[in-house]
Design goal:
4-stranded mixed sheet; 9 helices; single chain; alpha/beta; UDP-N-acetylmuramoyl-L-alanine:D-glutamate ligase; 298 residues
Length: 298
Amino acid sequence: MSKRPLRIGVVGALTIDVNRSRGGAYSYMGGGGFYSSLSLSRMGVETVLFTAYGPDMNQEWVESLKKRGIKVYAVELERSILFENVYQDSSRLQKASGEPSRKIFIDRSRLAGFDAVHVTPVLNEVDQSVFKELEEAGCKVSIDAQGFIRTCGVDGIVHQVKRMLPDDALSRVNYVHMNVDEQFFFLNHDVKELFEINPGMIVELTNSEHGSMVVYKHGCFYMPVFSVETLDPTGAGDVYAAVFLAKHLETGSLVEASIYASACSSIKAEKTGPFFDFNVNEVEDRVRKLKRLIENLY
């Protein structure tokens, strides 16, 4: 009897991204909703996207997601969130059009049968009632920190602020993804405070080309990065978080989940948004190479 595929939901807006990086300049769909749902679908996960965008979104972009087997439930906004990302060396200047006109809710009736839901806002566009709905539905919950610590100033520049997610919502979260810069805004002191809120929480702390750390209450470990020529890092963290969640649910191994997450995020880093995709053979090849790299570590 074959094992049923994982069923994972993703919550977050689809954005219009205008990016300038080593890979050139382009405009394409972006946001955690895009990169996470596409990655999960490519990993064989039954994927449902709860999202939001406006009439200015290119419908062909949305249809391309649906053609990859992703079911999409969308809130209609007055306009899509637009991000401008300009990369220079290791720094990024980011501008946005501002927080959306509506928040993303999830109808409880649509939450049946999920193994987990990954909440990945870009500008605090997910209503916090979603966390109570997910708890009552019995879903494992993963979040990306970035959308809970961002605000857009009158100048359009994106600023990081202290975490806008209260402890009672955070207590319902099983997985937290953030990068090394975001931790200073998401945390009050250090990562130990998250385990006081939820002792079973798993924290993925990524540091671009320097690899990642996986931290849990009773330990931590380092995962090196798969080295590539980075053309466009946009979305690499989103890919890491989504793949880590899926592989941990599938295998129960934090190390295995981290290896797959690192492999898949490296594929994103060397591809610009319009050309980002991967297949199982490509992923497994990088997984094998990473395993050889770390065989003396674990």
